[in-house]
Amino acid sequence: MNKKPTIRDVAKQAGVSPATVSYVLNDVKKVSDKTKAVVLEAIEQLNYFPDFTAVSLSKKKSNLIGIMLPIIEDSPASVFKNNLYYNEFVSGVELVARNRKFDTMITGVGDLDECKNWIMKRNIDGLIILGMFPESLYNELKNINIPIALIDTYEDYTNLFNNVKVNDEYGGYLAAKHLVELGHRNIAFVATNLAMSPVDRKRYQGFEEALKEAGIQPSSKFIFETHDITFEDGAKVGKELLSSDHGITGIVTVSDVLAIGMIKAIQQEGKQVPEDYSIVGFDDLSICKYITPSLTTIRQDIFEKGKLAADQLVNAIESLNSEQKTIEMPVELIVRESTRSL
Amino acid sequence: MNKKPTIRDVAKQAGVSPATVSYVLNDVKKVSDKTKAVVLEAIEQLNYFPDFTAVSLSKKKSNLIGIMLPIIEDSPASVFKNNLYYNEFVSGVELVARNRKFDTMITGVGDLDECKNWIMKRNIDGLIILGMFPESLYNELKNINIPIALIDTYEDYTNLFNNVKVNDEYGGYLAAKHLVELGHRNIAFVATNLAMSPVDRKRYQGFEEALKEAGIQPSSKFIFETHDITFEDGAKVGKELLSSDHGITGIVTVSDVLAIGMIKAIQQEGKQVPEDYSIVGFDDLSICKYITPSLTTIRQDIFEKGKLAADQLVNAIESLNSEQKTIEMPVELIVRESTRSL
DNA sequence: GACCTCCGGTTAACCGATTAACTTATTACT
DNA sequence: AGTAATAAGTTAATCGGTTAACCGGAGGTC
Fold this sequence. Notes:
The structure is a homodimer of 342-residue chains. Helix content of chain A is 42%, strand content 17%. The first copy, chain A, has helices at residues 7-14, 18-25, 33-46, 52-59, 84-99, 112-121, 135-142, 168-181, 198-213, 231-243, 256-268, 302-317; strands at 64-70, 103-109, 126-130, 148-151, 162-166, 187-191, 223-225, 250-253, 278-283, 296-299, 326-329, 332-334. The N and C termini of chain A lie far apart (72 Å). Mean pLDDT of chain A is 89; it is low at 73-81. At the A-B interface, helix 4, helix 5, strand 2, helix 6 and helix 11 of A face helix 4, helix 5, strand 2, helix 6 and helix 11 of B. Chain A binds a DNA duplex (30 and 30 nucleotides) through residues 6-8, 16-23, 25-26, 28-32, 35, 50-60.
């Protein structure tokens, strides 16, 4: 392969200065149509395209947007292994980013410094942060002057950062209300970690509200927590729930993945869904339709969420739109086979 | 935030030249321990770390490895939406890359030029290519002198590129043999596209061999093809198979995702798995254990595959290991509930 | 003492773009 | 006609590092 041509090669070929080539490339109005044509011809002939590394260095803009995913402590191994949620979200981001000429880099982040360095090192132009990180991160982030979009966050940073979230409270409400309307009274709530996850808390608030509306007294006995969001965790909490039965007939979970794991555990213990337990997931992952019984769930459009986040972020980067804003996406109850009337 | 310190700031602070700082940073032996200590102290004080963009430009090395995923033509929208396989693979790559101080960039590639540009633009140090692309790509790739690892490819490029694959033929063989041993005679083979996919062809070869061994004449009537690998495609081909029934009782698929879609379609038509149809998947995605019936499948360790690919690639980049090599990973039959003895 | 070799550093060119400042030719205006 | 404004380029510094080439001094050898 002959070496990649540089802007100077193009300039020589076209008989102009490198600056002129650069102006053509960047659509600066200084260049006459005639010269522009000559330059474009040379670019074509040499099959030239600019080196982004050099562009980044001199423009101090990388055309790179970063996605930070939390790493659960005891599985730092896999950033998004098994996690269908991340999967769909990232796809949405990638799509919009590509269309808008940005590349996407993903990192799983344990250590905070590692993350800050990553942003600075690579001259990331904008950052999407999924899920919760320790509070100190957000404080640090204030000092980094690149646009940031926070996804699924409830801390008091919404005036500082862009935000995309879902109406979690209403989601929890819809799920519980659905079960209540089907006649269930003893309804469990399965979260990952209420203390740590504001998203889970919001969903629980909605859940509680629906119960109260129906005159049911919420009880902490009906709250179950897992550590991570995996099928295995779901199965584990499922067994737990079965053995500590308080007459539970309905289950609201914060994730389809957990719900799927729970269904399996329930079946393995010789019980049936929805005959013995009605269960509602959250997210509406594409797998939901394909398990047996298919999963009743609270739908959120994760793919769309990714697209919105990317769009919001790129707008901010190109400051088409400088003030921070929060987008709240709707949720919707999707009734399938995993719930039934008592 | 005060501006990010540069190497010249550090040099000034330490009272040495920028070159010396660079040598310290790169562990070049020229620097005395005393000076080194002074420089490190200055680095610490200023909280300095090198700008990768600048490093990339001057070293012509980006510490970036690229992953190219094929985009199916009519779903260019989503690079790896729904695709649990990509998911696990990419996680493996990301893990190893991060440990070895590389960042990972992912792109879905429709257009070839787009891809070539991407590699050049970003100064990608090494490339992992998943799945099949048009032949012309590989010819182009020969001219790009960065290490490349091809995953799941059977074209005649194995001497030019690194390679990680799975023993697909044996996988197909195992799946078919399992069904044969259970007494099945009319066994369908469900592929995406035999003409296009060498991987599918290999698996089919093994499949055919097992049939022949058992004295069963393979017939093209038992071959079904989908377009893409999605649950929906699986369901569609499932309906097709049911309506064109040639007394089929066993099904071998090239993907768990297709198998899961098929199972749903079969159930929806009022038939049962494994009572009416025994079905074998391929991959052993984590979801397999959690559907009902749980899926008998040919296991390959996709996560490990990603790790191996990344390791191989980084070795090549750092030329610890310059000759190209092919790694073939084993497969294994995992018997679960979706197959039964006739 | 003359010569050579290391050692530990510095200088400055360079990677491939961008862009502020400058130049020159042309057009516009009074 | 004289001056200002504009159009169309060029020059050269710069982004933040790397690294080949150079350099002075200490130590070793004969």
